[in-house]
Write a structure and sequence with these properties.
7-stranded mixed beta sheet, 9 helices, elongated
């Protein structure tokens, strides 16, 4: 993977990719369709994209692998938040979006590491961004990278005012930044490779749980399913998700990632309720019915 600067000659490619990733990320969470469509019509109009590409002190970058765009990033140099001018000259991460087929593979983290390197190269000591307060998965992602909230701002989607958290990171507080930059790429590559392996392993175990009632003795299965539910009750998450970098939140779990990978986007909260509360008791009941009642 390489990170390239996007030029005006790539404006249409940027426009298509930006609108696609924005819709995938937020359309299902915006019930006001008219407001959402109004925002998209303006934000992703060809003239808007060209104007943004020509704006001084702003740059777009794309993460590219074998000619395919995996993600993109927009940076604004020397720009403090309007509501917090005391922040001083800083680097703003205005946008960062990853193609849905590439999520949970470390690409976003690599782009954020690149953004921090850009800030240091420009002698900017602070990097900041805004994130929707209704996007816990994104908030958790930034928190893991060392960002902390310091205020709020309003982001308008059409005529719908949505509250964003302002988050920032003090780059002067980090130790040995040069060493971190050297290690970032191989570490991310290793993380991505191991993440794919554990994601596949998790997938195999998930499929196994679905077919187990028909091939494994119910006296073994029922305690196994109870252990899975005990894990959810005690840790409030699936421990395997940490192995493949799936960031759980109140509305995203492994099944969400899996179904989205195959192009289906169910209601995430209903899906989580089904998996955590109903799925494994149902599978245990199926095992008993199949092996005892209908034997």
């Amino acid at each position: 993977m390489e990170i390239i600067r996007i030029t005006e000659s790539q404006a249409e490619m940027l426009r298509v990719f930006a609108e696609k990733t924005f819709r995938v990320a937020w359309e299902h969470l915006n019930p006001g369709k008219a407001d959402f469509e109004a925002y998209c019509a303006k934000a992703f109009a060809p003239e808007t994209i060209l104007q943004e590409l020509a704006t001084p002190d702003s740059c777009f970058f794309a993460a590219v692998d074998a000619g395919k765009w995996l993600a993109y990033l927009k940076l604004n140099y020397g720009v403090p938040p309007e509501a917090h001018p005391e922040t001083g000259a800083a680097l703003q991460v205005e946008r960062i979006y990853v193609d849905p087929d590439t999520q949970s593979r470390g690409v976003g983290a690599q782009l954020m590491a690149f953004a921090e390197q850009e800030a240091r190269s420009a002698d900017l000591k602070t990097i900041w961004l805004s994130v929707w307060t209704e996007a816990p998965r994104s908030i958790t992602f930034y928190e893991k990278l060392g960002y902390r909230t310091f205020g709020t701002e309003i982001f308008w989607v059409g005529n719908d005012p949505q509250t964003d958290w302002l988050m920032k990171k003090d780059l002067t507080a980090e130790k040995n930044p040069a060493l971190e930059n050297v290690q970032a790429a191989p570490a991310a590559a290793k993380s991505t490779a191991s993440g794919k392996l554990f994601f596949f392993l998790h997938l195999v175990l998930t499929l196994g749980a679905w077919v187990a009632p028909f091939i494994i003795d119910w006296r073994i299965l029922v305690p196994a399913y109870l252990l899975v539910m005990l894990q959810f009750a005690v840790f409030k998450k699936c421990l395997m998700n940490e192995m493949h970098e799936t960031q759980e939140s109140e509305d995203r779990i492994f099944y969400t990632e899996l179904l989205e990978y195959f192009g289906w986007r169910p209601n995430p909260r209903k899906l989580k309720f089904f998996v955590r509360k109903l799925l494994y008791p149902t599978l245990a009941l199926v095992a008993i019915l199949w092996q005892v009642v209908f034997k």
